[in-house]
Design a protein that fits this description.
Blueprint lengths: L4 H29 L14 H25 L1
């Protein structure tokens, strides 16, 4: 049995970086939308810029999940 270790390593690194990247991007979106400030007080409603950044993070995550499902079919 001949295992192509270089290709296996490439797939492993892609899975770790892309899989972890989606999770980190989602966490960044949640954190940006969070109303708490650094001192622990409520900062009120999020600004339109924060909503836009969060929407972009979630859209990229949704696109990555959609692409993953598409490639499986």
């Amino acid at each position: 049995m001949n295992v192509p270790w270089g290709d296996l390593g490439t797939v492993l690194m892609a899975a770790l970086f892309l899989g972890g990247g989606v999770i980190v991007l989602y966490a960044v979106g949640i954190r940006v939308l969070s109303p708490a400030s650094a001192d622990g007080e409520s900062a009120g409603r999020p600004t339109p810029l924060r909503i836009a950044i969060t929407s972009l993070c979630f859209a990229i995550c949704a696109a990555a999940v959609g692409y993953g499902i598409y490639t499986l079919l």
